[in-house]
Amino acid sequence: MRIGEMVRRTGVSERLLRYYEEQGLLAPERLPSGYRVYTETDVETVRHIRILLSAGLPTAKIRHMLACVRDDGPGLVPLCPTTVADLQRERERIARTIRDLETSQTLLDEVIARAPEPARSN
DNA sequence: TTTCTAACA
DNA sequence: TGTTAGTA
Description:
Strand 3 (69-71) and strand 4 (76-78) form a beta hairpin. A two-stranded antiparallel ribbon has the order 1-2. Strands 3-4 form a two-stranded antiparallel sheet. The chain is mainly alpha-helical. Helices cover 59% and strands 8% of the residues. The protein has helices spanning 3-10, 14-22, 40-54, 59-65, 81-113; strands at 29-30, 36-37, 69-71, 76-78. It has one domain (3-120): Multidrug-efflux Transporter Regulator, Chain: A, Domain 2. The longest helix has 33 residues, at 81-113. It contains 5 helices and 4 strands. The protein binds a DNA duplex through residues 2-4, 13-16, 18-19, 33-36.
């Protein structure tokens, strides 16, 4: 199928589908005209990409992860032995980011709390 | 009409 | 990411 149908099937915009290709996440074949040709597998791959992206993984990690994942309907299943470790590492990275943001939030709360009454009316 | 690339908002 | 221009 060409990109138009992919947009309908996946709900992902043309722009984004081309971007995923540029990032090495998809590799559709080309017609002599230069038009991209996608397969059913690509539709599935886009679903995986969306899930991994929602999980906060960068496209570079997703690129390696795609070959190591299966889809049993309800969710993704990590296959390669390194995949689980990679996911745990990402989880830790996210946890670290959350902690940093909480520190920032606390700092802001303290500053806000010291504001004179009239200025705090937000 | 649909898609492509490249570049700008 | 959206949008746009000029094509094939």
